[in-house]
Design brief:
- This protein is an alpha+beta fold.
- The protein contains 16 helices and 16 strands.
- The chain has helices at 13-20, 23-32, 49-52, 110-115, 168-181, 191-200, 220-237, 239-243, 247-266, 274-305, 307-310, 316-342, 344-359, 370-374, 378-397, 405-425; strands at 2-10, 34-44, 55-62, 65-73, 81-89, 117-133, 136-149, 152-165, 185-187, 434-435, 442-443, 459-463, 469-472, 475-479, 482-485, 500-504.
- Strands 1-5-4-3-2-6-7-8 form an 8-stranded antiparallel barrel, surrounded by 4 helices.
Length: 507
């Protein structure tokens, strides 16, 4: 297995030509560049079994040679690391004997061998230019061509930067320099993913958070990198959906940003340098640019849901006018979000954030309070941090009846950070089920804290001894008793001491 450390940029055709004319690239090309035409045929079953397991299998035609390559998601799932197994073969179809000892091996059987067939192919003209960057060597690969399935095709205009030797930071700095010269977007879709999207006939859609796996023997610094890169992946992967005006893409990018900012909060003891503060400000900026689009989309859905009861108190004319105004506001706010993710500031922010996560000033600081935090065992840190945050939320929740809406909103955010932290560290703890000591209810969670109640439900009914206001996302939902429909895992319920929550589990 050869792990690839690479970064991909989507570049318009004119931008590709401009980059190839840059002095450093032009000089490198004159000395050591190579060009070739490549045809790669991708194989999978009719139901795309390999793709569903996070793998792609191709046979590349390079003149008379045939090279078989299996690729799988790398350790960071961030667009930077992938695992690759490559073997020369003697035929146009896969040689599955060469797949022993790879992630594909557990899936191999006679049924899969018979089911494998060509599903799409890519045809690209490739120019490879090796560059020296500091003490590192980076290989620039300009790919222009198309991915094709029958009569359907989609263009490919990619610049791939692969680290052949040296530091990841040098790779990221070079990517930042290139993106300053042309409107190059950090890209996460591989050629294989483009092919599967072409088959499905779908544009890039919203991307949800993926599970995070942490080894129990790593340090807090290593754990933070893994967590933060996974969050950054969710942010960047939703940029195409935001540019397309997809409301779910806006929502999922905001979720990724919240998760990344929550991770920075959880590990805040390591970040006492000015560079970290700059990254925080950048993430706060893009979160603010996306916020109005999400808010108006929620408002429109609420009005659609409650249109019939509203007609009892609001005239039909006024309701139509409100809907028109919201539609205009929606168009304006979604255009604002689109311009933000297309802006040079956003492009720089993503690359700067990746560089900071991988090799920022925090990672080499010798400050007395920073280095010990960085070198702690993640298992010990996780137990301590989860306990501390859960205790703090529990104490504040006891006074919830006395809190104004702003303070309740802050409490909700604190509870959400506990939830995110639980998700970050879930893989460190056992898979066994826990029971709520008060109700005896089985709780299927890897991390359980008796101060918090965990439920899997689609309806929540909140009742209380006193007539209390209920808020969701700092918005009034009425007074108790109130019944709320939710998506599973989408709600944290925080109640004061002596109050009661009934959860209806209708799954």
């Amino acid at each position: 297995m050869t792990p690839e450390i690479e970064l991909k940029l989507e570049v318009p055709p004119r931008g590709m030509r401009k980059l190839q004319r840059m002095r450093g690239v032009r000089d490198g090309a004159a000395r050591r560049a190579r060009q070739e035409d490549l045809v790669s045929v991708y194989f999978d079953s009719a139901r795309h079994k390999l793709h569903h397991h996070g793998m792609s299998l191709r046979v590349r035609h390079v003149g008379d040679k045939r090279i078989q390559t299996l690729k799988a998601n790398g350790q960071w799932a961030s667009g930077l690391a992938r695992d690759e197994w490559e073997e020369p073969i003697e035929r146009d179809t896969p040689d599955l004997r060469a797949m022993r000892g790879t992630p594909l091996a557990p899936l191999l059987d006679k049924k899969l061998a018979r089911a494998l067939r060509p599903v799409f192919e890519t045809r690209v003209h490739r120019t490879v230019v090796p560059l020296d960057r500091g003490e590192s060597q980076v290989e620039l690969t300009f790919d222009q061509g198309e991915v094709r399935r029958g009569a359907k095709s989609a263009p490919i205009n990619e610049l791939e930067l692969e680290l052949k030797r040296g530091r990841i930071a040098d790779l990221l700095h070079l990517a930042r320099d290139l993106s300053d010269r042309v409107p190059a977007q950090f890209a996460l879709r591989s050629k294989a993913e483009r092919g599967y999207d072409l088959i499905a006939g779908r544009p890039a859609g919203a991307v949800r958070a993926q599970p995070i796996k942490l080894a129990p023997d790593i340090t807090t610094a290593e754990a933070f990198r893994t967590i933060a890169l996974a969050c950054a992946h969710q942010v960047a992967a939703n940029a195409p959906a935001v540019r397309a005006g997809d409301p779910e893409g806006v929502h999922q990018m905001r979720v990724g940003l919240r998760r990344l900012r929550a991770a920075m909060s959880v590990f805040s003891g390591m970040f006492r340098d000015p560079q970290s503060g700059g990254v925080k400000e950048g993430l706060k900026w893009i979160t603010g640019e996306l916020g109005p689009a999400r808010d108006v989309d929620v408002d429109i859905k609420s009005i659609t849901t409650y249109a019939e009861p509203m007609q009892r108190t609001v005239s039909h004319h006024d309701l139509e006018r409100l809907q028109r105004e919201l539609a205009a506001w929606r168009a304006e706010t979604f255009e604002r979000a689109k311009k933000a993710v297309e802006s040079p500031r956003y492009r720089s922010l993503i690359l700067d954030t990746l560089g900071w996560i991988v090799d920022g000033d925090w990672a080499s600081s010798d400050a007395p309070r920073v280095r010990p935090q960085r070198e702690r065992s993640v298992g010990d840190f996780a137990r301590e941090e989860l306990g501390r945050r859960a205790t703090k939320v529990g104490k504040r929740a006891k006074k919830i009846a006395k809190l104004d809406p702003r303070k309740r909103h802050k409490l909700r955010i604190a509870a959400k950070k506990v939830r995110y932290a639980t998700e970050f560290f879930r893989s460190l703890f056992g898979r066994g089920k826990a029971r709520d000591p008060r109700t005896g209810q089985t709780i299927n969670r890897r991390v359980y804290n008796p101060r918090l109640r965990y439920y899997r439900a689609t309806t929540v009914e909140v009742r209380s001894r006193h007539h209390l206001p209920v808020h969701g996302d700092a918005r009034p939902l009425g007074h108790t008793p109130v019944r709320i429909g939710i998506q599973p895992h989408a709600l944290n319920v925080v109640v004061g001491q002596g109050e009661h929550v009934t959860v209806t589990n209708d799954q």
